Amino acid sequence: MQKAEAVVAYMQSVGRCRTQLLLEYFGEISEEYCRVCDFCMARKKAKRQENHERLLWEQVMQHLTLKALHPKVLIGQFEPKFAPDLATLIRERLDKGYLHYDKEGKLHLLKN
To answer: What is the value of pTM for the model shown?
Structure first.
């Protein structure tokens, strides 16, 4: 019965490295992530996405530090493949108070 419970726990685990779970089951402890299981891959992907967003935001800030721009003009300063990410980033930063629209519909940088 313990083995079945361990298998269920392994399959339902979403917050731990699978290799760490397996090693723990066999009495070994490892602090290192395997970097190949679904948990580790999701972690790696999230980190890449975070870096991508940070780099885009830095570029947006550079543009808006120079002058206020309409969102379409701002997005046009980047490669077309980044348009969806930029639109999301702009919405999020508007919600958080980092950006605001003026009366002409141009974006202004409020705080870093």
So the answer is: 0.68
